[in-house]
Amino acid sequence: MAHKAAQWPSEETLLLWKREQARLKALMVDRDTEAWQRDPTFSGLQRVGGVDVSFVNGDSDRACASLVVLSYPELKVVYEDSHMVRLKAPYVSGFLAFREVPFLVELVQRLQEKEPGFMPQVLLVDGNGVLHQRGFGVACHLGVLTDLPCIGVAKKLLQVDGLENNSLHKEKIVLLQAGGDTFPLMGNSGTVLGMALKSHDHSTNPLYVSVGHRISLEVAVRLTHHCCRFRIPEPIRQADIRSRDYIRRTLGHPGSPAQRQERSQKEQRPKICPKDGPGAPAHQGRPPEDHGRDSITDLKDPQPGFQEQQKDQQLERTEHHEDSDL
User: Fold this and answer.
1) What is the pTM of this model?
2) Which residues pair with 55 in a beta bridge?
3) Which parts of the chain sit beneath pLDDT 50?
4) Do residues 80 and 66 lie in contact, with contact meaning Cβ atoms separated by under 8 Å?
5) What's the pLDDT tens digit per position in 237-269?
6) What are the DSSP E strand ranges found in the chain?
7) Beta strand 182-186 with 271-272: parallel, antiparallel or unpaired?
8) To pair with 17 at 20 to 30 A between CA atoms, which of 117, 259, 294, 302?
Protein backbone atom coordinates (compact mmCIF):
# COMPACT_ATOMS: atom_id res chain seq x y z
CA MET A 1 0.00 0.00 0.00
CA ALA A 2 1.40 3.40 -0.98
CA HIS A 3 2.22 5.74 1.85
CA LYS A 4 0.21 8.94 1.94
CA ALA A 5 2.44 12.00 2.15
CA ALA A 6 2.02 14.38 5.05
CA GLN A 7 -0.65 16.94 4.27
CA TRP A 8 -0.21 20.69 4.54
CA PRO A 9 -1.25 21.80 8.05
CA SER A 10 -4.44 23.74 8.56
CA GLU A 11 -4.46 27.33 9.75
CA GLU A 12 -5.55 26.02 13.13
CA THR A 13 -2.50 23.74 13.29
CA LEU A 14 -0.15 26.55 12.32
CA LEU A 15 -1.64 28.71 15.05
CA LEU A 16 -1.14 25.91 17.57
CA TRP A 17 2.47 25.55 16.45
CA LYS A 18 3.06 29.27 16.91
CA ARG A 19 1.58 29.11 20.40
CA GLU A 20 3.76 26.12 21.27
CA GLN A 21 6.86 27.94 20.02
CA ALA A 22 5.96 30.93 22.16
CA ARG A 23 5.38 28.70 25.20
CA LEU A 24 8.71 26.92 24.81
CA LYS A 25 10.55 30.15 24.00
CA ALA A 26 9.64 31.43 27.45
CA LEU A 27 11.67 28.51 28.86
CA MET A 28 14.75 29.15 26.73
CA VAL A 29 17.96 30.28 28.46
CA ASP A 30 20.43 32.34 26.42
CA ARG A 31 23.31 32.43 28.89
CA ASP A 32 26.02 30.05 30.11
CA THR A 33 24.82 27.62 32.76
CA GLU A 34 27.74 25.18 33.02
CA ALA A 35 31.14 25.55 34.68
CA TRP A 36 32.99 24.35 31.57
CA GLN A 37 31.42 27.16 29.55
CA ARG A 38 33.07 29.74 31.78
CA ASP A 39 36.53 28.19 31.46
CA PRO A 40 38.66 29.66 28.63
CA THR A 41 39.90 26.17 27.71
CA PHE A 42 36.53 24.45 28.24
CA SER A 43 38.03 22.42 31.06
CA GLY A 44 35.49 19.83 32.17
CA LEU A 45 33.93 19.43 28.74
CA GLN A 46 34.34 15.80 27.70
CA ARG A 47 31.44 14.96 25.37
CA VAL A 48 29.93 16.94 22.50
CA GLY A 49 26.95 15.69 20.51
CA GLY A 50 25.66 16.24 17.01
CA VAL A 51 22.29 15.44 15.41
CA ASP A 52 21.13 15.07 11.85
CA VAL A 53 18.10 14.02 9.82
CA SER A 54 18.87 12.66 6.33
CA PHE A 55 16.17 11.91 3.81
CA VAL A 56 15.70 8.96 1.52
CA ASN A 57 16.23 10.04 -2.06
CA GLY A 58 12.86 10.58 -3.73
CA ASP A 59 10.88 10.30 -0.48
CA SER A 60 10.52 13.53 1.50
CA ASP A 61 8.75 11.77 4.38
CA ARG A 62 11.11 8.86 5.01
CA ALA A 63 14.33 9.71 6.77
CA CYS A 64 17.08 8.64 9.10
CA ALA A 65 17.53 10.45 12.41
CA SER A 66 21.03 10.22 13.83
CA LEU A 67 22.74 11.15 17.10
CA VAL A 68 26.49 10.94 17.64
CA VAL A 69 28.59 11.75 20.69
CA LEU A 70 32.24 12.68 20.33
CA SER A 71 34.98 12.92 22.91
CA TYR A 72 36.32 16.40 23.49
CA PRO A 73 38.84 17.72 22.60
CA GLU A 74 39.85 14.62 20.59
CA LEU A 75 36.64 14.71 18.49
CA LYS A 76 36.46 10.91 18.24
CA VAL A 77 33.06 9.24 17.97
CA VAL A 78 32.29 7.30 21.16
CA TYR A 79 28.56 6.67 20.61
CA GLU A 80 26.23 6.60 17.64
CA ASP A 81 22.58 5.77 17.12
CA SER A 82 20.57 5.97 13.91
CA HIS A 83 16.92 5.14 13.32
CA MET A 84 14.72 5.12 10.23
CA VAL A 85 11.64 7.29 10.73
CA ARG A 86 8.51 8.34 8.87
CA LEU A 87 7.91 12.05 9.31
CA LYS A 88 4.28 12.89 9.95
CA ALA A 89 4.39 16.67 9.55
CA PRO A 90 5.18 18.40 6.25
CA TYR A 91 7.97 20.89 5.85
CA VAL A 92 6.71 24.40 6.60
CA SER A 93 9.13 27.33 6.70
CA GLY A 94 9.62 28.48 10.27
CA PHE A 95 8.26 25.24 11.75
CA LEU A 96 10.93 22.67 10.91
CA ALA A 97 11.14 21.60 14.57
CA PHE A 98 7.63 20.13 14.46
CA ARG A 99 8.75 17.90 11.60
CA GLU A 100 12.13 16.69 12.89
CA VAL A 101 12.68 17.40 16.58
CA PRO A 102 10.40 14.65 17.99
CA PHE A 103 12.69 12.00 16.51
CA LEU A 104 15.82 13.72 17.79
CA VAL A 105 14.33 13.94 21.26
CA GLU A 106 13.65 10.19 21.11
CA LEU A 107 17.31 9.52 20.31
CA VAL A 108 18.45 11.61 23.26
CA GLN A 109 15.99 9.85 25.55
CA ARG A 110 17.16 6.48 24.30
CA LEU A 111 20.74 7.40 25.09
CA GLN A 112 19.76 8.61 28.56
CA GLU A 113 17.99 5.33 29.28
CA LYS A 114 20.53 2.91 27.83
CA GLU A 115 23.94 4.60 28.17
CA PRO A 116 23.66 7.66 30.46
CA GLY A 117 27.43 7.83 30.80
CA PHE A 118 27.62 8.93 27.15
CA MET A 119 25.14 11.82 27.45
CA PRO A 120 26.56 14.86 25.63
CA GLN A 121 27.21 18.01 27.61
CA VAL A 122 26.27 20.11 24.59
CA LEU A 123 24.52 19.45 21.26
CA LEU A 124 25.43 21.02 17.93
CA VAL A 125 22.41 21.22 15.65
CA ASP A 126 22.37 21.61 11.87
CA GLY A 127 20.05 24.61 11.84
CA ASN A 128 19.32 27.89 13.55
CA GLY A 129 18.67 28.85 17.14
CA VAL A 130 17.46 32.36 17.92
CA LEU A 131 18.32 33.36 14.36
CA HIS A 132 14.77 32.58 13.28
CA GLN A 133 11.52 34.24 12.20
CA ARG A 134 10.18 34.10 15.75
CA GLY A 135 13.48 33.78 17.58
CA PHE A 136 13.01 30.08 18.26
CA GLY A 137 14.55 27.77 15.68
CA VAL A 138 15.17 24.04 15.72
CA ALA A 139 18.24 24.31 18.01
CA CYS A 140 16.21 26.21 20.62
CA HIS A 141 13.33 23.76 20.36
CA LEU A 142 15.55 20.72 20.82
CA GLY A 143 17.48 22.37 23.64
CA VAL A 144 14.39 23.23 25.67
CA LEU A 145 12.82 19.80 25.22
CA THR A 146 16.00 17.92 26.18
CA ASP A 147 17.25 20.55 28.66
CA LEU A 148 20.69 20.29 27.06
CA PRO A 149 22.91 23.19 26.01
CA CYS A 150 22.38 23.55 22.26
CA ILE A 151 24.09 25.50 19.50
CA GLY A 152 22.53 26.31 16.14
CA VAL A 153 24.95 26.01 13.22
CA ALA A 154 23.52 26.92 9.80
CA LYS A 155 25.31 26.89 6.46
CA LYS A 156 23.21 29.59 4.83
CA LEU A 157 22.07 32.97 6.15
CA LEU A 158 18.45 33.03 7.23
CA GLN A 159 17.22 36.42 6.03
CA VAL A 160 15.13 37.69 8.93
CA ASP A 161 14.90 41.00 10.79
CA GLY A 162 16.42 42.84 7.85
CA LEU A 163 19.42 40.53 7.47
CA GLU A 164 20.20 40.06 3.79
CA ASN A 165 22.74 38.13 1.80
CA ASN A 166 23.49 41.26 -0.19
CA SER A 167 26.67 42.90 -1.48
CA LEU A 168 27.46 44.40 1.94
CA HIS A 169 27.13 41.01 3.60
CA LYS A 170 29.39 39.46 0.95
CA GLU A 171 31.98 42.19 1.50
CA LYS A 172 32.06 41.29 5.19
CA ILE A 173 32.60 37.65 4.28
CA VAL A 174 35.61 38.58 2.17
CA LEU A 175 37.15 40.29 5.20
CA LEU A 176 37.11 37.00 7.13
CA GLN A 177 40.73 35.98 6.62
CA ALA A 178 41.49 33.15 9.04
CA GLY A 179 39.65 30.39 10.82
CA GLY A 180 37.96 31.85 13.89
CA ASP A 181 37.27 35.26 12.33
CA THR A 182 33.69 36.46 12.85
CA PHE A 183 31.28 39.32 12.37
CA PRO A 184 27.95 39.89 14.17
CA LEU A 185 24.55 39.38 12.57
CA MET A 186 22.61 42.40 13.77
CA GLY A 187 19.06 42.80 12.58
CA ASN A 188 16.99 45.95 12.12
CA SER A 189 15.77 45.50 15.68
CA GLY A 190 19.29 46.18 16.92
CA THR A 191 19.58 42.66 18.32
CA VAL A 192 22.60 40.51 17.54
CA LEU A 193 20.96 37.27 16.39
CA GLY A 194 24.13 35.32 15.74
CA MET A 195 27.63 35.42 14.33
CA ALA A 196 29.08 34.61 10.93
CA LEU A 197 32.10 32.39 11.56
CA LYS A 198 34.93 31.43 9.22
CA SER A 199 35.33 27.99 10.68
CA HIS A 200 38.43 26.89 8.80
CA ASP A 201 41.35 28.64 7.14
CA HIS A 202 40.49 27.06 3.79
CA SER A 203 36.70 27.45 3.85
CA THR A 204 35.10 29.97 1.51
CA ASN A 205 31.67 30.38 3.07
CA PRO A 206 31.06 31.13 6.75
CA LEU A 207 28.86 29.27 9.17
CA TYR A 208 26.03 31.10 10.92
CA VAL A 209 26.13 30.33 14.64
CA SER A 210 23.32 31.20 17.02
CA VAL A 211 22.27 30.40 20.57
CA GLY A 212 20.01 27.40 21.00
CA HIS A 213 19.67 26.93 24.75
CA ARG A 214 21.73 27.26 27.94
CA ILE A 215 24.79 28.83 26.30
CA SER A 216 26.00 32.33 25.42
CA LEU A 217 26.71 33.40 21.86
CA GLU A 218 30.41 33.99 22.57
CA VAL A 219 30.88 30.48 23.95
CA ALA A 220 28.74 28.95 21.19
CA VAL A 221 30.94 30.53 18.51
CA ARG A 222 34.21 29.60 20.21
CA LEU A 223 33.19 25.99 20.79
CA THR A 224 31.88 25.61 17.25
CA HIS A 225 35.24 26.76 15.92
CA HIS A 226 37.09 24.35 18.22
CA CYS A 227 34.96 21.50 16.86
CA CYS A 228 35.84 22.22 13.23
CA ARG A 229 38.49 19.96 11.74
CA PHE A 230 37.05 21.08 8.41
CA ARG A 231 34.35 23.59 7.56
CA ILE A 232 31.46 21.74 9.21
CA PRO A 233 31.72 21.06 12.98
CA GLU A 234 32.74 17.45 13.48
CA PRO A 235 29.68 16.44 15.60
CA ILE A 236 27.28 17.55 12.85
CA ARG A 237 29.55 16.22 10.12
CA GLN A 238 29.75 12.77 11.69
CA ALA A 239 26.00 12.62 12.35
CA ASP A 240 25.43 13.46 8.69
CA ILE A 241 27.92 10.88 7.43
CA ARG A 242 26.48 8.13 9.59
CA SER A 243 22.83 8.89 8.83
CA ARG A 244 23.51 8.75 5.10
CA ASP A 245 25.43 5.54 5.44
CA TYR A 246 22.67 4.03 7.56
CA ILE A 247 20.17 4.76 4.78
CA ARG A 248 22.43 3.11 2.22
CA ARG A 249 23.02 0.05 4.39
CA THR A 250 19.38 -0.30 5.42
CA LEU A 251 17.78 0.19 2.02
CA GLY A 252 20.55 -1.50 0.08
CA HIS A 253 20.34 -4.92 1.74
CA PRO A 254 19.72 -7.88 -0.58
CA GLY A 255 17.31 -10.61 0.40
CA SER A 256 13.64 -10.89 1.22
CA PRO A 257 11.65 -8.09 2.94
CA ALA A 258 11.67 -10.16 6.14
CA GLN A 259 15.47 -10.47 6.02
CA ARG A 260 15.87 -6.75 5.37
CA GLN A 261 13.55 -5.94 8.28
CA GLU A 262 15.50 -8.25 10.60
CA ARG A 263 18.81 -6.67 9.62
CA SER A 264 17.31 -3.20 9.95
CA GLN A 265 16.13 -3.95 13.48
CA LYS A 266 19.59 -5.18 14.44
CA GLU A 267 21.23 -2.07 13.01
CA GLN A 268 18.87 0.25 14.86
CA ARG A 269 20.42 -0.66 18.18
CA PRO A 270 22.62 2.07 19.67
CA LYS A 271 26.32 1.53 19.14
CA ILE A 272 29.09 2.31 21.61
CA CYS A 273 32.24 2.93 19.66
CA PRO A 274 35.77 1.85 20.56
CA LYS A 275 37.76 4.30 22.60
CA ASP A 276 39.87 5.39 19.64
CA GLY A 277 36.78 5.94 17.47
CA PRO A 278 35.47 3.80 14.63
CA GLY A 279 35.88 4.28 10.95
CA ALA A 280 33.16 6.77 10.11
CA PRO A 281 30.59 5.23 7.79
CA ALA A 282 29.26 7.95 5.39
CA HIS A 283 22.02 12.51 3.32
CA GLN A 284 20.06 12.79 0.97
CA GLY A 285 19.30 16.09 2.65
CA ARG A 286 16.00 17.38 3.88
CA PRO A 287 13.02 17.39 1.54
CA PRO A 288 13.32 19.33 -1.73
CA GLU A 289 12.26 22.55 -0.01
CA ASP A 290 15.09 22.24 2.50
CA HIS A 291 18.12 20.60 0.95
CA GLY A 292 21.63 21.40 2.02
CA ARG A 293 23.15 18.66 4.12
CA ASP A 294 26.80 18.09 3.45
CA SER A 295 27.53 15.71 0.61
CA ILE A 296 30.26 13.56 2.09
CA THR A 297 30.77 9.97 0.98
CA ASP A 298 34.00 9.23 2.79
CA LEU A 299 33.55 6.19 5.01
CA LYS A 300 36.69 6.66 7.09
CA ASP A 301 37.70 9.02 9.84
CA PRO A 302 39.22 12.03 8.08
CA GLN A 303 42.98 12.34 7.87
CA PRO A 304 44.73 15.64 7.14
CA GLY A 305 45.64 15.98 3.48
CA PHE A 306 44.66 16.99 0.03
CA GLN A 307 41.92 14.38 -0.42
CA GLU A 308 40.00 15.55 2.62
CA GLN A 309 40.40 19.16 1.58
CA GLN A 310 38.92 18.27 -1.81
CA LYS A 311 35.98 16.50 -0.15
CA ASP A 312 35.31 19.46 2.11
CA GLN A 313 35.37 21.83 -0.85
CA GLN A 314 32.97 19.52 -2.68
CA LEU A 315 30.76 19.60 0.41
CA GLU A 316 30.45 23.38 0.06
CA ARG A 317 29.74 23.22 -3.67
CA THR A 318 26.88 20.75 -3.20
CA GLU A 319 24.95 22.77 -0.62
CA HIS A 320 21.46 23.88 -1.55
CA HIS A 321 19.01 26.15 0.29
CA GLU A 322 18.46 24.24 3.51
CA ASP A 323 18.53 27.21 5.83
CA SER A 324 15.49 28.97 4.44
CA ASP A 325 13.95 27.93 7.72
CA LEU A 326 15.63 25.95 10.46
Assistant:
1) 0.81
2) 63
3) 1-2, 253-256, 258-259, 267, 276-285, 287-326
4) yes
5) 999 999 999 999 999 744 445 445 555 555 455
6) 47-56, 59-71, 77-86, 122-126, 150-154, 182-186, 192-197, 207-213, 271-272
7) unpaired
8) 294
